[in-house]
Specification:
CATH topology of the largest domain: FAD/NAD(P)-binding domain
CATH class of the largest domain: Alpha Beta
Bound molecules: flavin-adenine dinucleotide
Largest sheet: 7 strands, mixed
Number of domains: 2
Length: 598
């Protein structure tokens, strides 16, 4: 049978839209008439009549991984009027919902912020593209969907950094509350939460060979790396619905909540600053189309705009480092030297291999018939390469005997190309069958910053992650490259390898490998820490996520993590949103009790 690319694309997109649309229609029928009037542009019309125009109890800025959780939980008991404000639009592209199709969005400015970093001094002077989600669901609508809670020891280390109440044991109830994971130990895993989690198992020949090679190399095979036993090698878990579609925080948390009459959702609305009355946050100023709008909070403004834009919003509001604010002509409302500092990300470098069999995404995307077959597999069974965004299996390990925690993660990706954004032939996907083993340094030592460079909210901030400034990070990646090369020499994987294509066998000495690392290291998109929690001089929020020295103002998103949770960062951010919502609700319940008693 001869099928062209265009024909296979049309069949897949049509069928996926039909299936997804069906799901949506069923959900819509369950929603109230009010909710059906959700416009996605401006205020939800359901709320126009019921909410006293622009006055709310809580205003949540940013509908990302954390923001959607807050919108749901804070509006759940019906007592509080909540406004959720999102700069992007609705998550109505099929490219968001069919996991593999997200490759079509990573450079689409309708759905992503195209942040560029400063030239990286320790990466041969190259700047980096950092795509972030600009849509309901935020980055959870465009991310790789890999579901990892991380290393218990990393959370436990946070208490020594002044974050009491954030140990693994403290986080566990929230990790459980957020998820539905059918298998796994019910003591450790959630069974009825908003985010559905699927476990890949015997996914394909390549991943099976990778895990067999891990066993041959002496790594322990771990059944469920999310139950507290992190180290070892495993098939990955994905945050996808039982039918295989993306389960973002917008899907899991916002959809069920958006019919509530006490929740307003403003999309396509950019928050430009927090309105202050002395040291108290009383609302926000926003821009929608060419109009300036204000919204006021009776209780709190909660900034959940993500690790790049939460510090930006604080600085635009006069909260931050005095020299940064003065340089752009903003009056200092509250000096807080840690805003925008302490930022980190997992540095990521990769080895690529030509594969001896046509079993990779390279083959699927370049052969219309394979694409059609995979499309039909997804449509009928919700499985196959379209049900994943990127990786299929990982190895969590230590770079050397001196490490008291795992500090390296290797990830198998069944495609190969010139860099991390090369996921389609037109972006540099290799024309031959190929796979990648990515390496991330899980506990990076380098720290960077994010600061505004203009008082104009439309101007991107200055972003310098300072990758590999600390030599230990490059040394960790070097150990990772050596570990990958050992793995592909194991009999199970060796038979699938034609040759190493990047960096290639000629790169052997320590210096050559380090040069390759500095030439090719990129983001893992796991940026955190720019409004860190703690009580030292660079801490921005306390353990209750309140901005130090301010009232009625919290930051609740991945920017508050003091270090990168030693994992992919979406699940930790959603769990943080859950715990943050509990903290906020308890604080206001306690106030109500105290007031009543008085
Ligand atoms: C391409 C990519 C792949 C990734 N892959 C994975 C993965 O496979 N697994 C994993 O665990 N993690 C992954 N991550 C990381 C993970 O998705 C993020 O760490 C997490 O989503 C961060 O959540 P957040 O709530 O802090 O910010 P975000 O989810 O980014 O949310 C911030 C929201 O605020 C909005 N906003 C910003 N400024 C304003 C403003 N001024 N006014 C109004 N709204 C505003 C944004 O548009 C956005 O919707 C990936 C990230 C990316 C970008």
């Amino acid at each position: 049978m001869h099928v062209t690319h265009a024909e296979s694309d049309i069949v897949i997109i049509f069928a996926a839209r039909f299936l997804y649309g069906e799901g949506c229609r069923r959900r819509r029928r369950r929603m109230t008439a009010d909710a059906r009037a959700f416009t996605g542009r401006g205020m939800t019309s359901s709320n126009k009549n019921t909410i006293d125009q622009n006055r709310f109890d809580f205003i949540v800025v940013g509908a990302g991984s954390a923001g959607c959780v807050l919108a749901n939980r804070l509006s759940a008991n019906g007592e509080h009027r909540v406004l959720l404000i999102e700069a992007g639009g609705r998550d109505n592209s099929i490219n968001i919902h069919v996991p593999l199709m997200v490759v079509n969005l990573l450079k689409d400015e309708k759905y992503t912020w195209p942040f560029m970093t400063e030239k990286q001094v320790h990466l041969n002077g190259k700047e980096q593209l950092w795509a972030r989600g600009k849509v309901l669901g935020g980055s959870s609508s465009i991310n790789g969907n890999v579901y990892v809670r991380g290393d218990p020891a990393e959370y436990d280390s946070w208490s020594s950094l002044g974050c009491s109440g954030w140990s693994w044991e403290d986080m566990l109830p929230y990790f459980k509350r957020m998820e539905t994971f059918a298998s796994g130990d019910p003591v450790k895993r959630g069974k009825s939460g908003p985010i559905n989690v699927n476990q890949l198992k015997n996914f394909d020949k390549l991943a099976d060979a990778y895990l067999d090679a891990n066993r041959e190399a002496g790594f322990e095979l771990v059944d469920d790396y999310n139950d507290g036993h992190y180290e070892g090698s495993s098939y990955l878990q994905y945050s996808t619905t039982p039918r295989g579609f993306r389960c973002s925080s917008a899907v899991g948390y916002l959809r069920p909540a958006r019919g509530r009459s006490n929740l307003a959702i403003w999309t396509n609305t950019l928050v430009t600053k927090i309105l202050l009355d002395g040291k108290r946050a009383i609302g926000v100023e926003c821009r929608r189309d060419d109009k300036t709008i204000q919204a006021f909070s009776r209780k709190e403004v909660i900034v959940s705009a993500g690790p790049i834009q939460s510090p930006k919003i604080l600085e635009l509001s006069g909260i931050g480092r005095a020299d940064v604010l003065k340089a752009v002509g903003i009056d200092v409302a509250h000096e807080l030297p840690g805003v925008g500092e302490n930022m980190s990300d997992h540095p990521n470098c990769r080895l690529t291999f030509e594969c001896s069999q046509p079993i990779t995404i390279n083959d699927v995307l370049q052969r219309p018939l394979s694409k059609l077959k995979e499309g039909l597999r997804f449509i009928f069974f919700g499985k196959g390469l379209l049900s994943i965004c990127s990786a299929t299996a990982h190895t969590v390990m230590r770079s050397g005997p001196g490490q008291n925690q795992p500090d390296l993660k290797l990830q198998l990706q069944p495609f190969s190309g010139k860099d991390r954004y090369a996921r389609r032939p037109k972006d540099g996907l290799d024309p031959h069958s190929g796979f990648t083993i990515g390496i991330m340094a899980l506990r990076p030592h380098s720290r960077g910053y994010i600061h505004i460079k203009s008082a104009d909210p439309a101007v991107q901030p200055r972003i310098d992650p300072n990758y590999l400034a600390d030599e230990r990070d490059a040394a960790t990646l070097l150990a990772g490259i050596r570990a990958v090369r050992r793995l592909v020499e194991m009999p199970s994987l060796k038979k699938l390898v034609v040759r190493e294509t990047r960096p290639g066998p000629e790169v052997q000495t320590e210096q050559q490998i380090l040069d390759y690392i500095r030439l090719t290291t990129q983001t893992t998109w796991h940026v955190v820490g720019s409004c860190k929690m703690g009580n030292d001089e660079l801490a921005v929020v306390d353990s209750d996520l309140l901005v130090h020295g301010m009232e009625g103002l919290r930051v609740i998103d991945s920017s508050v993590f003091p270090t990168v949770p030693s994992s992919n960062t979406n699940a930790p951010t959603i769990a943080l949103g859950e715990k943050g919502a509990d903290i906020v609700l308890k604080a206001w319940n306690n106030r109500a009790v105290t007031t009543a008693a008085a």
